[in-house]
Amino acid sequence: MSVKQSLDIFNRIVRDLLADEAIKPVADHLPVSALDDRLDLSLGMDGVDAEHLEKSLRDLVLATPRTATPAFFNQLFGGRQEQAILGDLLAVVLNNSMATYKAAGPQIAVEKTIISEVCKLMGWGEASGGTLGPGGSMTNLMGMLMGRDAFDAKVRHSGMNGRMTVYTSTESHYSTPKNAAFSGIGRDNVRHIATDDRGRMNMAALRQAIVDDKAKGLNPVLINCTAGTTVLGAYDDLTAAAAVAREFDIWLHVDGAYGGSALFSERHRHLVAGADLVDSFTLNAHKMLGTPLSCSLIMVRDKANLNTTFSNDASYLYQTDHDAFNPGKTSLQCGRRNDALKFWVLWKSIGTKGLAAFVDQQFHLADLARDYVRNHPDYTDYSVDETVAVCFNYKGIPAQTLCTALYEHSQLLVGYGSFRDTTFVRLVTINGSNGDAELRAFFAKLEAFVAEHPSLLAAAA
Ligand SMILES: *Cc1c(COP(=O)(O)O)cnc(C)c1O
Fold it and tell me: Has UniProt tagged this entry with the keyword Lyase (predicted)?
């Protein structure tokens, strides 16, 4: 098959998908037990002809959950930015590895341009830098490893020496304990700090936990703040955390995988005030910035830390050019996918103002949804203001029951979450391509669905 034939098939299948999405924003629910009946996923000793392949592929694509339509509010990504798709398709065709200038050439400069522009938004100077990694969990790991090595540079040669501790809020992402396990710090040495009733880390409790651990002879090495907690969307106070980090000389990493994109918005940038004071900052462009999965950045105030932790000499790899253009020396991986080009094409095309407008639209949609929920007697609101997560229950129906029924009846994809003792529907307005009408349609659909399925009310509290 030629590249041209592949692209022809691609175009036909995408055309069919877009046509079908317009009629059916949620793909028909496909139970695991029906997979083999409905789809041809088998692999055999002999290949199949082009026609057979195209049919199998079309069936597969049309049966796949639809994350780009106005009925997807499930997880922290969604929508479809055409410009970014163009960039990503070209990255696939080019197939460079972002380790060396020799193998990726100007694509390295594309990545460096993105990092340098985001560092400027952070308020950082010439010493700053960064890289892209395979996702927020992994760029958070990079932050933790740099914190560990900043405390004790010998660890990377001789292994752990004494017990280290890290600090993060009870509302933070599960990648922190996972990364503590990976880094040798250990899950048991993660201190989960209480939050206030808006889901923000309690800074006095943070300071006290550090004091207590130091008194026991432990070694605090990292504070992990969250800019946009996964459930509530809450933003920790970075300025206050930076003061604690300074006092004890501890690395301050910000997990802004979800909400770090507020950096782009003049209206909402105050949520990450103090970003200039932190040591490292994770941001997923595949969440609020609408770039296809995955596109995760880590920015570092002093890029020398990236070299300390991640460089390894390899004469078979780094044969030419200046280190600054051989980002394999500052990355978690060896071969590395070009995740920069899709983001660059999007940014180039709509400008920083366009990205800001996209972020602002998500906050606007969330405000609209919160207004609706707060003014409607059948809803109970649990959300925090100025977040893109709208948390509510409807007519007392358990959130899990409602979300699962909406999914199994192919109505809406929306998830649920918990804060303290309450579980609620979590509507994420992260698809900035949606308008007010799509948001209203969400509530209309939910209400009509419950009206047609009165049995749901039987489960109501
Ligand atoms: C999504 C998310 C992550 C993980 O990012 P992945 O790219 O999915 O690995 C980390 N932290 C927070 C707060 C998140 O919302």
Answer: yes
Q: Which atom of ligand 1 is nearest to the CA of 135?
A: 7
Ligand 1: centre distance to CA 451 (Å): 35
List strands edge to edge, sheet with 413-419. Answer: 72-73, 413-419, 422-428, 389-394, 379-381
Of 74, 75, 76, the one to substitute when testing ligand 1's pocket (max ligand atoms within 8 A of C-beta) is 76
Q: Which atom of ligand 1 is nearest to the CA of 293?
A: 7
Whether 25 contacts 69, CB under 8 Å: yes
Of 137, 261, 288, best ligand 1 pocket probe by most atoms within 8 Å of the beta carbon: 137
Cβ neighbourhood burial of 407 (10 Å; 0-12, 13-18, 19+): middle
Task: Indicate the DSSP class of residue 335.
Answer: S
**How remote is the C-alpha of 218 from its chain's centroid?**
32
Q: Whose CA is nearest to atom 5 of ligand 1?
A: 136
b vs e for 355-388, b when ≥16 Cβ sit within 10 Å of the residue's Cβ? bbebbbbbbbbbbbbbebbeeeeebbbbbbebbb
Tokens 């880590």, residue located: 298
The torsion defined by the Cα of 267, 273, 275 and 281, in degrees rounded to 10, comes to -60
255 lines ligand 1 (CB under 6 A): yes
Q: What is the mean pLDDT of residues 82-105?
A: 95
Mean of the pLDDT values across residues 261-277? 98
| Cα end-to-end distance, the chain, whole Å | 59
Q: How far apart are CA 241 and CA 253, in angstroms?
A: 10
* Claim: this prediction has a pTM higher than 0.85: yes
In angstroms, what is the span from residue 448 Cα to ligand 1's centroid?
33
With the most atoms of ligand 1 within 8 angstroms of its CB, the residue from 255, 286, 298 to mutate is 255
Using the mean position of ligand 1's atoms as its centre, give its distance from the Cα of residue 35 in Å: 29
| Atom number, ligand 1, closest to the C-alpha of residue 227 | 13
| Sheet of 164-169, strand order | 129-133, 296-300, 280-284, 251-256, 219-226, 164-169, 190-193
SS (H, E, C) 34-92: HHHHHCCCCCCCCCCCHHHHHHHHHHHHHCCCCCCCCCEECCCCCCCCHHHHHHHHHHH
Whether 316 has a pLDDT exceeding 80, the answer reads no
pLDDT at 157: 92
Whole-number percent of the chain with pLDDT over 90? 91
Across the chain, mean pLDDT equals: 95
Neighbouring-strand partners of residue 415:
426
